[in-house]
Amino acid sequence: MSTALPARVPPSVAVAQCLALAWRGIVKIRRHPLVLADVVLGPAVFLVLFVYVFGGAIEGSTDRYLQFVLPGILGLMTLLATMGVGVALCQDLKSGVFDRIRSLPTLRIAPLVGAIGGDAVRQIVAIAALLGFGTLLGFRFQTDAWAVLAACGLAVAFALSLSWVWVLLGLLVKDAQAVQGLGAMLIFPLCFASNIFVPPGTMPGWLRGFVEVNPIRHLMDAMRGMMVGGPVARPVLWTLMWMVGFVAVFAPLALAAYRRSAR
Q1: What sign results for the dihedral spanned by CA atoms 242, 12, 93, 155?
Q2: How many angstroms separate the CA atoms of 53 and 31, rounded?
Q3: Can you list the alpha helix ranges (DSSP code H) found in the chain?
Q4: CA quadruple 4, 174, 155, 199: dihedral positive or negative?
Q5: Residue 95's Cα: distance from chain center in Å?
Q6: Which of 189, 202, 197 is CA-nearest to residue 224?
Q7: Tens digits of per-residue pLDDT, 26-64?
Q8: Please, are residues 221 and 71 in contact by the beta-carbon 8 Å criterion?
């Protein structure tokens, strides 16, 4: 007999369950803080390498390139951090944690929402580390604090919506290394075939066509507009539509895969 809650549950109960399972992920980080090493050191390494190895060749000045590329690397780091959701999910499935959660009267989707919610801490740490290090290197915001906070919030929200892709992969593949490998195969082409590192105008026409429909491109335009100035409304609108699309498509698929795995 299924122990899942009825389809209709009070919103307060559903929210409480999701928050409790998200807190579980945060507690794991508190007990093993070294899991944050990649999101703390990774942004600094990427920023130094791209600014001082490619900056002079691309922009003619490392200072100017730093102003261009930091919002891009911020978006890249938050997107890369989302792969940790799928990896952690695989580990929980193998350890039997999800079997114990299923035996409790919890909402079916609560463990999945909780896994994504707990990952928000990694996203926030990655953003804080990169902005702090970028400021030390000489990056300067050209907008106000509210716009910068809005850019950071948009990056986190976009990453969390994209996390449903890795949740689905984690439920289907059920192998942590395979999820990480497949995730890299998906995320790196999207990130490098975008405007994260260079303006699309320098790319061949066929690649520019892909960049135009790449969701990462709209996120980057929005973040640069809110951090260093430029158009904001249109790219933010496109980014929000992509976020809704990710959740609308991949959340039901992930929930269906989770239900099948419970049989």
Answers
A1: positive
A2: 37
A3: 11-31, 37-49, 55-59, 62-81, 83-95, 97-102, 110-118, 120-137, 145-173, 176-192, 205-212, 215-228, 233-261
A4: negative
A5: 25
A6: 197
A7: 666 666 666 667 777 877 888 888 898 888 888 888 888
A8: no
How far, in Å, CA of 258 to CA of 123, rounded?
25
User: Which tokens hold the place of 112?
Assistant: 């999945």
Amino acid at 232: V
Strand, helix or coil for residue 200: helix
| Centroid of chain to Cα 242 | 13
For the packed helices 110-118 and 145-173, what is the interaxial angle rounded to 10 degrees?
130
Phi/psi for 135 (5° steps) reads -65, -40
Residue whose structure tokens are 């050209």: 142
The predicted pLDDT at position 11 comes to 66
Question: What are the tens digits of pLDDT across the range 11-23?
Answer: 666 677 677 666 6
What is the C-alpha separation between 235 and 169, in angstroms, rounded?
28
CA dihedral 94, 95, 98, 101 (to 10 degrees): 170
**Nearest of 90, 76, 115 to residue 177 by alpha carbon:** 90
Within 13 Å of residue 155, how many CA atoms lie on the same side as its CB? 35
Residues 6+ apart with CB under 8 A from 97: none
Which residue bears the tokens 């970028």?
A: 134
Q: In the 8-state DSSP scheme, what is residue 194?
A: T
